[in-house]
Write a structure and sequence with these properties.
alpha+beta, three-stranded antiparallel sheet, 55% helix
């Protein structure tokens, strides 16, 4: 650096650069504000002067004006008139909504639900009586029938035997008498024993027959009761389903009544509107960059050499005092390289095209920095401690 060459006017260059950038932005904005005209209408732009609320400086602002064609404007006005009338009618319908929805539905006013008929129908339990009683009755009947025949029969045999024995000259005290009469007694005992056996055997058969008859009779009664029960159950189910159907129809009708006014309101308030005219698209003017005024402030080759030498001297300790622009706004393609003397060190390109290395002004102590033309510069002798 050496201090012999005259330093470029960076402040003036920065101001000139900013002015050039504003002019480019103004031209680009103007290029992107075309007036457009279609059969449906038009879109035009009108510039006007105002003040920037932040800085208070005069600025140019733009107003977009959309206009219908006469036919579209007439249709738009008619539809607005219809919409106003529709809104008035909708307001009257909306008042009725309070009557419909102001109170909750009275569910108790509907027909009761059908009952479950399962508990209303039970099968009768048939009885066949006591089988032992049937058997005993049958045995007694058969035995009594046999006894009623045996008793007179053996009484007659005893009389005939007594007559015969008396005719033979025997008396009850004689052994022959007793022998003959004992034989009749034995025969009678055997006859009664056989009658008892026959009564038991026959009683069991008759008891079984009676049991089967009662079982069949009971089964018939059960089948008849089952059929009647099924029929009654089916009729009860039909009645219950019919009651539920009536209730559902009542609820559906009530809900339909409650929603009638709301549906009418929705139908009244809905409708197509004339839309804003759709303008054909166009390609925006591309970004234009102002001429790099910084490059014109100094001879490019000398500046590059001086700037690189300044950075090298700062790194190697050869510089005595080096004030360099280190404002982030002036740098592009910033890359972190490491740390130098406790400070973050970067490589970057200045916006005027010079590549360099160094720190960021906002990352070093404020005492190391100064301001030139609104941009921060850094004293690298302090950064590097030389």
């Amino acid at each position: 650096m050496g201090g012999k060459n005259k330093s470029p006017d960076y402040e003036g260059a920065a101001q000139a650069q900013g002015s050039a950038n504003r002019e480019v932005n103004t031209d680009q904005t103007f290029a992107n504000r075309p007036n457009q005209y279609t059969p449906a209408g038009s879109s035009t732009w009108s510039p006007y002067q105002t003040k920037d609320p932040g800085t208070g400086k005069p600025v140019t602002s733009w107003q977009q004006n959309l206009t219908f064609s006469p036919e579209q404007q007439m249709l738009y006005d008619k539809q607005n008139a219809i919409s106003n009338e529709r809104a008035d009618v909708g307001g009257m319908v909306a008042k009725r909504l309070g009557d419909e929805y102001g109170e909750a539905m009275d569910w108790g006013g509907f027909s009761p639900m059908g009952n479950n008929p399962m508990a209303q129908f039970t099968m009768p339990e048939g009885s066949i009586g006591d089988p032992n009683q049937f058997r005993q009755s049958a045995e007694d009947a058969r035995y009594n029938k046999a006894s009623s025949r045996l008793s007179p029969q053996y009484a007659e045999k005893r009389r005939a035997m007594e007559t015969q024995l008396r005719n033979q000259g025997l008396s009850p005290e004689d052994s022959a008498w007793k022998s003959q009469m004992a034989g009749i007694d034995t025969a009678e005992t055997d006859a009664y024993a056989q009658a008892q056996y026959d009564a038991v055997t026959g009683g069991m058969g008759e008891a079984n027959q009676m049991y089967n008859q009662l079982m069949g009779q009971n089964q018939n009664m059960f089948n008849q009761a089952l059929g009647a029960n099924r029929q009654n159950y089916g009729m009860a189910m039909q009645g219950s389903e019919y009651a539920n159907q009536i209730r559902q129809q009542q609820i559906a009708e009530q809900l339909q009544q409650r929603g009638t006014n709301l549906n009418e309101l929705n139908a009244i308030m809905s409708g197509q509107q004339v839309g804003i005219p759709s303008m054909p698209s166009f390609s925006d003017a591309s970004r234009a960059e102002a001429a790099p005024i910084y490059q014109g402030t100094v001879d490019q080759g000398n500046f590059n050499q001086a700037q690189n030498q300044q950075t090298m001297d700062a790194v190697t300790g050869g510089a005595q005092a080096a004030m360099m622009f280190s404002d982030r706004r002036l740098k592009r393609n910033v890359k972190r390289l490491g740390t130098v003397n406790g400070h973050k060190w970067y490589s970057f390109d200045y916006i005027w095209g010079v590549s360099a290395q160094g720190v960021m002004a906002d990352e070093v102590p404020e005492s190391y920095t100064a301001t030139v033309g609104g941009y921060a510069v850094v004293d690298y002798s302090k950064v590097l401690g030389v």
